[in-house]
Design goal:
Elements lengths: L1 H7 L14 H36 L3 E5 L5 E4 L1 H6 L14 H4 L1 H14 L1 E10 L5 E12 L5 E10 L1 H30 L3 H17 L4 H16 L6 E3 H19 L3 E6 L8 E3 L4 H14 L4 E10 L2 E9 L15 H16 L4 E7 L2 E9 L10
Parallel strand pairs: 7-9
Antiparallel strand pairs: 1-2, 1-5, 3-4, 4-5, 6-8, 9-10, 10-12, 11-12
């Protein structure tokens, strides 16, 4: 009985002296074993409490416990610092709404009563000196056996700097998007004057040698100019429309170069509705003709092909000749000088990392490869 009273009083190091092998001795050994188990459990509990207290006191996140009405019952030093207070004592007894505003406090408590948890609630954290920071709250509700809300535990993180960085990144992306759009408009209206001059010369020549072809040539020029100069708010166009423009462009160039230029354009019908950035292929094909005529044996061969590659659409532009890595300075401002770089930027803005743009030589030909998602993978911050 003395041992039972000692255990009840918390003196878990006491034991019964056991002698003999009778039932009384057996009972004494059982009591000692129970005392050993209680002492071990108590030591483990103390260690757990010590670890919890260390985490609670030293955590960089604000930790709080509040009642169902939002009254703060316990907070750690980090929460007090976030609130602009000297210590937890200045915060205890205040309401969570005092620190994050009435609307946010009401929203927090309402969601906890409705669903039992809140994840990522962004709040304006009002500090004691009146300054504000941006915070984010994660919390869960504890209920008793009858389901009544008895306590709320949560974390409060300061995300002010993180949000400022994200906003600055967003501003930079928006500025980049606007710059690329401006470049696209420049590219759209900056049709190479030599190209138009050559088309007009071809019209003049045909008027004397083959007038019957003039109507088709004018139709191709009209279709090309319409596709080049028109734009959509989304910045995207169906692949079949882009390929139609390429066919018109190459038809016009074919009249100019006649037997010195051989072309082909192919695209399966089932991928014609794939949305692609406007003027995605045209600057590449224009470069293929321009540089190919300088570096390729005649006739210059230009092949444009589209096909399905898993979840992607692959567009390849191949031409005989040599790859010219960068336009000459004299070409700057004629469309091609900004065309390829504009394509690279627009693909990044539209698809993020889910695209391919490769340029080089393979099998004795210049090859430019573009891969884009077949459907539905437009970057949320894209054009």
């Amino acid at each position: 009985m003395d041992l039972a009273r000692d255990i009840e009083a918390g003196r878990l190091d006491r034991r019964v002296e056991v002698r003999g092998t009778d039932e009384v001795a057996h009972l004494g050994r059982g009591l000692n074993a129970m005392a050993d188990s209680l002492e071990e459990s108590h030591a483990a509990l103390e260690e757990a409490e010590r670890l919890y207290r260390g985490i609670f006191e030293n955590a960089v996140e604000g930790i709080f416990i509040m009642d169902p009405d939002g009254l703060l019952l316990n907070v750690n030093p980090a929460f007090a610092r976030l609130a602009g207070c000297e210590g937890p004592g200045e915060v205890l007894g205040t309401n969570i709404a005092d620190h994050c505003g009435t609307d946010a406090g009401t929203l927090l408590l309402g969601e906890l009563r409705r669903s039992g948890s809140v994840r990522g609630l962004e709040v304006d954290l009002v500090r004691r000196d009146g300054t504000t920071r941006t915070g984010i709250i994660y919390a869960r509700a504890d209920h008793d056996r009858e389901g009544a809300l008895v306590r709320i535990q949560g974390l409060l993180n300061d995300i002010t700097e993180k949000k400022e960085i994200e906003e600055e990144r967003h501003r930079a992306q928006e500025a980049q998007r606007r710059f690329v759009e401006a470049q696209l408009e420049t590219l759209r209206y900056q049709i190479n004057p030599h190209f138009l001059f050559n088309v007009l010369n071809s019209l003049d020549a045909l008027s004397k040698t083959d007038p019957g072809r003039i109507t088709e040539l004018v139709r191709q020029l009209s279709r090309y100019l319409r596709a080049t100069l028109s734009s959509r708010e989304s910045g995207l166009t169906p692949l079949e429309r882009e390929m139609s423009m390429i066919e018109s462009y190459l038809s016009l160039e074919k009249v100019r170069f006649e037997g010195d230029l051989s072309v082909s354009v192919s695209m399966p019908e089932e991928i014609g509705d794939t949305m692609v950035p406007e003027l995605l292929v045209q600057p590449i094909v224009e470069n293929a003709v321009k540089h190919g005529m300088k570096t390729s044996p005649l006739p210059l061969r230009v092949d444009v092909s589209c096909r399905v590659a898993g979840e992607y659409v692959r567009i390849e532009i191949r031409n005989t000749g040599k790859w010219i890595a960068r336009d000459a300075p004299a070409d700057a401002g004629k469309g091609g000088g900004i065309g390829l770089e504009n394509i690279r930027k627009r693909l990044q803005l539209t698809y993020g990392d889910r695209h391919v743009l490769e340029m080089g030589e393979s099998g004795g030909r210049v090859v430019v490869t573009v891969e884009i998602p077949r459907r539905g993978d437009k970057n949320e911050k894209g054009l």
